[in-house]
Amino acid sequence: MEPGDLARYRKLLEDLRAELQTSLAASDDETNPVSPDRAIGRLTRQDAMLSQQMALEIKRRNEGRLSQIRLALERLDAGDYGYCTRCEEEISAARLNVRPEAPTCISCAGGGR
Ligand SMILES: [Zn+2]
Questions:
Q1: Could you tell me the sign of the dihedral formed by the alpha carbons of 60, 66, 68, 70, in that order?
Q2: Distance from Cα 84 to the centre of ligand 1, integer Å
Q3: Residue 72 — very low, low, confident or very high, per pLDDT cuts 50/70/90?
Q4: How close is the Cα of 89 to the center of ligand 1, in Å?
Q5: How far is the C-alpha of 68 from the C-alpha of 89, rounded, in Å?
Q6: How far is the CA of 16 from the centre of ligand 1 (A)?
Q7: What's the gap in Å between 21 CA and the centre of ligand 1?
Q8: Distance 3 CA to ligand 1 centre (A)
Q9: Termini Cα distance of the chain
Q10: What angle, rounded to 10 degrees, do the helices at 45-78 and 3-26 form?
Q11: How far apart are CA 113 and CA 102, in angstroms?
């Protein structure tokens, strides 16, 4: 991988990290337990709990992605970035452009992600 590519992926990862940290901070309110007396307009308690479940799910996913991004930045610093952590083959640029935090190549990820 070229030094220019590495700098570009670092920027991508840092932007993503900032974005996720902001949205995680913003989601703290939504994921607080629903209080029994909560009533916002026509929103029922059940609706509130349902949207809390969704917010929690999104939060969990964002936290998972954030930790992958942190690991990818560590691999960048260590000079291991862009190589599959499982088979050590180079990860394709097409994959890294979509998921710069991807730790494995497409075949090791099972093609699903
Ligand atoms: Zn692999």
A1: negative
A2: 5
A3: very high
A4: 6
A5: 18
A6: 23
A7: 28
A8: 22
A9: 22
A10: 160
A11: 9
Q: What is the pLDDT of residue 67?
A: 97
Per-residue DSSP letter, 82: T
Q: How far is the CA of 40 from the centre of ligand 1 (A)?
A: 49
- In total, the chain counts a number of residues equal to 113
Residue 96 neighbours by CB distance under 10 Å: 22
Dist. CA 90 → ligand 1 center (Å):
8
Give the largest Cα separation in the chain, rounded: 58
Q: What is the pLDDT of residues 5-56, one digit of tens each?
A: 999 999 999 999 999 999 998 877 777 776 666 555 666 888 888 988 999 9
- Indicate the helix (H) or strand (E) that contains 10: helix 3-26
Which pair of tokens denotes residue 59?
């939060």
